[in-house]
Design goal:
Blueprint: H1 4-7, E1 13-18, E2 21-26, E3 41-47, E4 57-62, H2 85-90, E5 98-100
Antiparallel strand pairs: 1-2, 2-3, 3-4, 4-5
Length: about 110
Amino acid sequence: QLSPGLRTPLLPVWLCGVPGRHGVLFGTDSRLLSHWRAERVFHLYFYSGQRQQTQTAHLTIDTHSRHWEEAPSEDACSPGKRCPALEMAIRTKWAGATISWNGTDPFS
């Protein structure tokens, strides 16, 4: 029998399988599970446990940014550039979100 915590997690957790990397994408704000207003600007973390990842990647997700007003050089997913698979996975839930890697090199 599953514990209630496994059926209804207290914090948002997703298991991710992006090309070449499997890991856990998680948040530390429980409001993401129940309060849509918490989905404006929030933080997610990704950890794969692979040797080349020395620390958890800290991502800032902004679902209401005006990405079309930014300079084209700032958009990692502009035409002609390859968008990191983890960003594409995040955008399946939050379409059009701007994702900041906060100094971490984006994984392809």
